[in-house]
Structure formats: structure tokens, C-alpha cells
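This is your field. Please look over both lines of this record.
***
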Amino acid sequence: QVQLVEPGGGLVQPGGPLRLSCAASGFTLDHYAIGWFRQSPGKAREAVTCLMSRVSGERTYYAESVKGRVTISNDYRANTVYLEMNSLTPEDTAVYYCGRADSGYGCYASKSRRSEYDVWGQGTQVTVSS
């Protein structure tokens, strides 16, 4: 069964760090791009970052709103992609989702195109508050 699972999330103190994981099953990461998106109440789901597949060179994209605070990485042995974010603010409060796109789609140097992701995790709530 092809799926993505995102454990983690929860309550984070302002200024604190966050690490989310996206565990893939039913497929291997080598031939797929993985993207992280987030959605706040009343807002559209927005791209945070993405990582191209190994066969596409593993290049990354970061949204301007998080550039410099976010790192995306993967562990092929664990078949898992990680999102690390620091200096969190209440504006980072959202449900965070990871998604999968076929190699060569979804994740580009200048954008992450949500419509091209075909498998999504269930999402995990992150709340930044003191």
C-alpha cells in the first residue's frame, strides 16, 4: 500500500525548532519527489519546501517565507524525508502535509506545484504558542 505517514508535530514554543518526518511505504524515494506543504485555517495549502528525486539530482526548493529557516533532507535507508525548521513564530502554525510526485514533476527549482503531487500524508498539526 502506497502511503505517507507524518508523525510528530504538536506544540512548539516561539523561537523554537521543529522536526517533522514523512515516512514512505509501498514505494522507494529514489524515483519520487517529496514536498512539504502547510495549511492554516482559512488559507490555501502552500508549499514550504520540496526535494527532487535522486534521479533528478536531489535539488531543493524553499519558499521565500521560510528560506533560511528550513531544511529538507532524506534518509534512503529509512525511506523517510525530514523537515527541520527553526525560529518558529505563530505564523508557522498550520497543518503540515508531505506529498509525493513522480520524478521530474511537482518539485522544481523555483516552485513546488501542488497539483502534481498524487499521494499525501494525513497531515500533522503544528501550533506555535507560548
